[in-house]
Amino acid sequence: MMTGQQYKKSLNDNREIFFEGERVRDPLAHPVLSQCVERVAAGYDRFYSPAPGAVSPLMAVPHSAQELHERIPLLHESDIVANVTYQSLMTLTTAATRIADSLPDYSKRIRRYVADAQQRDIRIVECITDAKGDRSRPPGKQDDPDAYTHVVERRPDGVVIRGAKLHITGASICHELMVIPTKAMKPGEEDYAIGCAVPVNSPGVKIVDTSYAPRHPDVRTFPVSSRTHMPEGFVIFDNVFVPKERIFLDGATEQAAVFAHSLGLWERLGGLSGMAEEADQLVGFAQLIAEANGLARESHIREKISEMIIHATLVRSALEAAIAKCHVTEEGAFPDELYTNAGKYHGAANYNLMVRHLHDIAGGSVLTAPSLADFENEQTGPLVRKYMSTMNGVDGEYRARLFHTVRDITADAYGGWRAVTNVQAGGGLYAQRIVTRRYYDLNGAKEKALHVAGLDSKSGK
Ligand SMILES: Cc1cc2nc3c(=O)[nH]c(=O)nc-3n(C[C@H](O)[C@H](O)[C@H](O)COP(=O)(O)OP(=O)(O)OC[C@H]3O[C@@H](n4cnc5c(N)ncnc54)[C@H](O)[C@@H]3O)c2cc1C
After folding, report:
1. Which has fewest Cβ within 10 Å: 72, 183, 222, 450?
2. 312 lines ligand 1 (CB under 6 A)
3. Which of 189, 175, 214, 200 is nearest to 31 (CA)?
């Protein structure tokens, strides 16, 4: 396994990364990226074991509902890059299982890669979302053939790929890019049915970063985002050579969707577990602010908080069901598709309403609570403390800090990131609706309806 120090050193590999128009030669010396690197390094140290052959608990494949369950708090206390590494390895493990009969050689190669990645203790990110061009047209019918990542040359020892994968969380500070097709491919689209693992420093890989990191000199009023931000990478594959042993799929269009579906399962389980945690946090903030404002007994406030509690409980119930009803095979434990997708959909679709309730309860100080530096200033400190206080026992700074956190997580750059990410990560809401419908027992529901109506099942279409 790697220590944090070894991880930091490993990034010094001539990778081509860019941040706001500038090439970043040393991520450790960059004012924003260095914070992310330090966070990932701390995660390495947290789980480091010197035992030969040890595998990080974040990278091991779970084999039971209990192991799936126990992994969640570990992932929550880890950085996003560790989370997407786990999801990448689980995506590959799931896909290897699903293609084992039709593509046994690729399946074996994927398993070897997963075992090797666990031993090397590397960080891997998920590169699925292509640039996609005109969304109404398939990959082969785009004006620019590179709108979807594809093979441009086949050699005896590997392939050359070209294209771009967008919104790739943590790409510039990981080791390898797991590249998989973004959707199902049809006959004629063989070059687009490409899955592989690409080291970040491969010649031709360029990553353009964006960030929601607070850039203020005093980040104490950004208590969450200043600790958790990670870069989003616009990953360009400009004629990148991929050796044979790193190719997981090449040309088998009928299996292209397996990878996207496998990733969807794990990405949405991660999203669902994150939203379950966030939903409880939103309830907590609503109740704390209602109490600090003297309104906790007010009926319309209680009703909104009750609605938030019901939402939080249902999201967590879906998470519990997705795990309790997991499918255990020799390969591992796989969460249930129906509960994972329905839960992720419900959590994401109702998130903005829960945030609206919180903002409605909290009031304008969400945006305008004075900073901690104002509390420390000799002239303003005593006055802002006095007027931010609401009653004996409710300190002004305590109340301001609640508001700072609510702004940070719901109403500022990171809040915007959460709102969009909840909807888009793991595919938009539409994707979750499709999968939920596919796994729901619609015929069983029809049978029940016919039974209640006293009708013969043969007449039901
Ligand atoms: C912060 C953030 C982090 C992310 N992290 C990652 C990551 O690490 N790795 C990764 O691979 N991706 C990542 N994503 C990408 C995410 O999965 C996509 O944003 C999502 O799948 C939607 O794709 P898109 O952004 O290209 O939007 P679009 O595909 O343009 O979708 C926009 C809307 O158009 C609809 N639509 C699109 N095509 C069609 C069609 N043919 N017919 C009908 N409707 C259509 C969609 O359903 C959606 O409602 C991330 C996204 C965000 C915002």
Report:
1. 450
2. no
3. 214
CB 75 within 8 A of CB 86: yes
* Cα(154)–Cα(376) distance, integer angstroms: 64
Amino acid at 281: Q
SS3 assignment, position 440: coil
- Tell me 356's DSSP state: H
Output the CA 424–ligand 1 centroid distance in Å: 6
Return d(Cα 132, Cα 428) in angstroms, integer: 15
Give me the residue label for tokens 């409710």: 394
Provide CB contacts within 8 A for 445, sequence distance 6+: none
Distance 141 CA to ligand 1 centre (A): 19
Q: Please check whether residue 194 is in contact with residue 250, taking contact to mean a CB–CB distance below 8 angstroms.
A: yes
Average pLDDT value for residue range 334-352: 97
Evaluate: CB of 133 within 6 angstroms of ligand 1.
no
Dist. CA 341 → ligand 1 center (Å): 16
Residue 102, token pair as written in the block: 């039709």
Residue-wise DSSP of 397-438: HHHHHHHHHHIIIIISHHHHHHHHHHHHTTS-HHHHHHHHHH
Which residue stretches of 15-136 are H helix? 33-47, 65-76, 80-98, 104-120
- Helix, coil or strand: residue 31: coil
Q: Are 230 and 40 in contact (CB under 8 A)?
A: no
Residue whose CB lies within 8 A of the most ligand 1 atoms, among 87, 229, 424, 434, for a mutation test:
424
Q: How many CB atoms lie within 10 A of CB 403?
A: 24
Question: Which is it for strands 232-243 and 158-169: parallel, antiparallel or unpaired?
Answer: antiparallel
Please state which CATH number belongs to domain 258-446: 1.20.140.10
Query: Which atom of ligand 1 is nearest to 427's Cα?
Result: 21
d(CA 270, CA 215): 28
Q: Does position 75 have pLDDT exceeding 60, yes or no?
A: yes
Give pLDDT tens digits for 145-182.
999 999 999 999 999 999 999 999 999 999 999 999 99
Q: Which is the closest atom of ligand 1 to the Cα of 132? A: 26
pLDDT tens track for 382-439: 999 999 999 999 999 999 999 999 999 999 999 999 999 999 988 889 999 999 999 9
What is the model's pTM?
0.95
Query: What number is the average pLDDT over the span 259-275?
Result: 97
Q: For ligand 1, say whether the CB of 424 is within 6 Å of any of its atoms.
A: yes
